[in-house]
Write a structure and sequence with these properties.
The structure is a homodimer. Chain A has about 200 residues and is an all-alpha fold. Helices cover about 70% and strands about 0% of the residues of chain A. Chain A has helices at about 15-30, 35-40, 50-55, 55-80, 85-105, 105-110, 120-145, 150-170, 175-180, 185-195. In chain A, helix 1 packs across helix 2, helix 5 (about 85-105) runs antiparallel to helix 7 (about 120-145) and helix 7 crosses helix 8. The longest helix of chain A has 25 residues, at about 55-80. Chains A and B meet through helix 8 and helix 10 of A and helix 8 and helix 10 of B. The first copy, chain A, binds a DNA duplex (30 and 30 nucleotides) through helix 2 and helix 3.
DNA sequence: CCCCTTATCTTGACGGCGACAAGATCAGAG
DNA sequence: CTCTGATCTTGTCGCCGTCAAGATAAGGGG
């Protein structure tokens, strides 16, 4: 694992560090994440990552950005088999959201507000924004109104996002014991029941 | 600040560490939190906290538990002037939830799933549980059914919790830019609009 | 073909960190 | 007064992120 490689130059260190970084993230979590361990895992000196990512924040930000892109893929993946019903498509996005949070809990935490990433990179900001735009698109298809054109629709979009995100976060952090004891499939069903009230028509009082 | 105190024994070190610990949490966040700095802030040697809290996890867990208790107070505080309408009381809890998240963002993060607390202490677990029981009580008053007696009511309770928590978290982590640009009071109004669909009657289909 | 510039990676050092062990100080019981 | 246990200090260890200086490779211009 720490075997010396034959060539002085690695060749594709940046990609290798990202791969190893995500592995370590999954193993040790964000708190136990260490640049030196990632470097050693790739078989490279402890200061090598600096050239590609600047500092630890840089690597973590890159990992988070990559996470947001895969996050989007997870939502789209669920939608692929969900037919063309607007309501079903939104629910599918929610399930994809949960899939991602469950399959990469540490990355999920890193992405949503871990302090070890300071100000988000440009790359990170756009990747995160794209993920929300996807949800906003689902909402627009369901309601027939763009969230950016109608405050009530925006409120609904934020509600949807908040509910899904809160559910995923509370599951992830172990705070929702009642639901946590169920198998994942049943958790999903439970989520859909809880989700249902947000799928109705807009109540523009 | 690091002045040597006259007596060898501090007298009330445990409480002083908790106070200084929360201060440091607010200043540097969870990631920058350091036992040694807390100790130095109290004017005590770097190893002194160990006797009262074991290790860093111990101090953080104690801070989180204290946080959950104050969290409950924040919800009750909002309810004090909310009349006796079940719906208004639940909304008030939600607003208190947001108040707390906004006023102690770092503590809020620590409480909900930071990895630097390992397995929750007994104290921490009960404090966290009491906070959820409060919300469950609000739901029960609104619906007339205990969440622990009716799965649909439980789903509703989880939905309420998830939405409020997700909203608070996304605000806290800066991911909800659209809402973040509004003043707090308007954020609260926005939250209530988004929250409304969850306040209706149970749809036990 | 050689040299030179530049990117890449290594080595070594610094201070700060959490944890541990051993010793100093104090308070209170007997 | 002494003994005992709780409380706090001092010193050390290994690990961490960051920085600076040097070694190595790669590629282009002569």
């Amino acid at each position: 694992m720490v075997r010396r490689r034959p060539t002085y130059h690695h060749g594709d260190l940046r990609a290798a560090l990202l791969r190893a970084g995500e592995e370590q993230l999954a193993r040790t979590g964000v708190a136990g994440f260490s640049l030196r361990q990632v470097a050693s895992r790739v078989g490279v000196s402890h200061a090598a990552p600096a050239h590609h990512f600047g500092d630890a924040q840089g690597l973590l930000a890159a990992l988070a950005a990559e996470g947001f892109r895969r996050f989007l893929v997870a939502m789209r993946h669920r939608q692929a088999n969900a037919g063309d019903n607007a309501r079903a498509l939104l629910v599918a996005s929610g399930l994809g959201y949960l899939d991602f949070a469950r399959s990469s809990p540490a990355l999920f935490r890193l992405m949503f507000g871990d302090e070890r990433i300071g100000k988000p990179t440009e790359e990170l900001a756009t990747a995160a924004n794209n993920a929300f735009l996807h949800l906003a698109g689902d909402i627009e298809r369901l309601l027939g109104v763009s969230a950016f054109a109608n405050p009530t629709a925006m409120a609904r979009a934020m509600a949807v996002w908040s509910l899904v995100h809160g559910f995923a976060s509370l599951l992830n952090s172990g705070h929702m014991r009642t639901v946590l004891s169920m198998p994942p499939e049943q958790q999903n069903h439970f989520f859909q029941v809880a989700f249902a009230p947000l799928l109705g028509p807009l109540d523009t009082d």
